[in-house]
Amino acid sequence: MKQTIITALLALIAHCVFAAAPDSLKKDLEDYDYLVSFVEKNYAPFEAIMQKGYKREYKSMKKQIRVQLRKGESDLEKATTDYAMWFYRQFDRHIGVMTEAFGMAQGNNINEAFLKMDSTLATLGPDDVKYAPKPISCKVDSLTWLIRVPSCHPDFRERTINALQQFDESNCVNLIIDVRGNDGGGDTVWHGYYDMLYDHPGKPSASWFRNTPENLKRWQYIVESGQSDDEYNRNFIKECESSKKKFVKWGETSSDTGRKPTTRIRRAAVLIDCMTASAGESIVDFVKNHSDRAKVYGKCNTIGCNLTGNCWDKVVLPNSKIGVWYATTVDSGFYEKDFSEGVGIVPDVIIPLSMPRKLTDNIDEWVLWVAEEMKKA
What is d(CA 242, CA 5) in angstroms, rounded to the nearest whole number? Predict the structure, then answer.
């Protein structure tokens, strides 16, 4: 009885404090609570993260951020940034809020990763390093061809397919696929590459859609807007609508369908950096799972979007109208991932060189080093 009375009094006090708060603060708290509730109900990796033993840390984090916001020690932009960055830094880069603060936090995260790769960058000025990868398809030496793919966006698709044809017409037997700086786009860029690099079946992997009304709106919008008006998506929507399951399997569970090993390539390498993301990671994932002739080279992990996908960036908080993006699907590999290694894909071979001071449409020192290493294999 006493406990019930105490609980009721505390609730009353909290209500009175909230009622006395300025209207702007009330709206900020409403938005923060909306964000937390939305993520917990719709963000695909959320349940997996909680199952991995982060429940207590998560509860403490979200409570602390709310207390700081309520006390005026933080504003909404910082609160939403801090909340999303807890997931972003530790587990998945397919989550975030559309604020200047979050953009700065992302930039700082990439800068930290670059400094881990090469600490001398901190002493160099902006004019000393030009790191802006551009598309390139050319011969490195008599055995090796280089294809640099800095993006998987639609504008690069035809160029990337043509580059593979140029390699086919060359006398080179070794191929370097450079995805440094590749921030993603569409996986279709890599379809021809998968066939060429395939050696064996990989571990089956399923993508699971978190089946909520909010997430389902994304697929309905894709079909209704004509972005992907195909039978598969229409059937998938029907399956989700009729299913009571929290997660519904989406996409193929394997990349082996119809593929057979080829002999066109003797050795292959995929070059990565801390900005290789999303669809840019797809070729890295494929090589890890299906190729014996290819290795992943770099100095750090990829950015870490490879185990989640299908982001939706049109959710807005009710008062501030701040946009939120998050993953609606999670790969089965996410449940097995050891996050003590950090997010992203770990390179097979660490390149023992400093960061290139110039990376545009040139053949840099990393490419030359990898070309020599492939000859030794």
Answer: 45
Q: Are 10 and 2 in contact (CB under 8 A)?
A: no
Residue written as token pair 């207390």? 67
Range(s) of the domain holding residue 290: 134-211+246-306+344-376
Residue 272's φ and ψ, nearest 5 degrees, are -125, 165
Indicate if 165 and 40 belong to the same structural domain: no
Cα–Cα dist 375/144, whole Å: 9
| Contacts of range 166-170, beta carbons closer than 8 Å, 24 or more positions apart | 166/137, 167/137, 168/264, 170/139, 170/145
Cβ(294)–Cβ(287) below 8 Å: yes
DSSP assignment of 23-68 equals: HHHHHHHHHHHHHHHHHHHH-TTHHHHIIIIIHHHHHHHHHHHHHH
CB 92 within 8 A of CB 331: no
Whole-model pTM? 0.86
Residue 186 identity: G
Residues 88 and 199 in one domain: no
One domain for residues 139 and 272:
yes
Distance CA 346, CA 301 (A): 5
3-48 confidence digits (pLDDT tens): 555 555 445 445 544 444 679 999 999 999 999 999 999 999 999 9
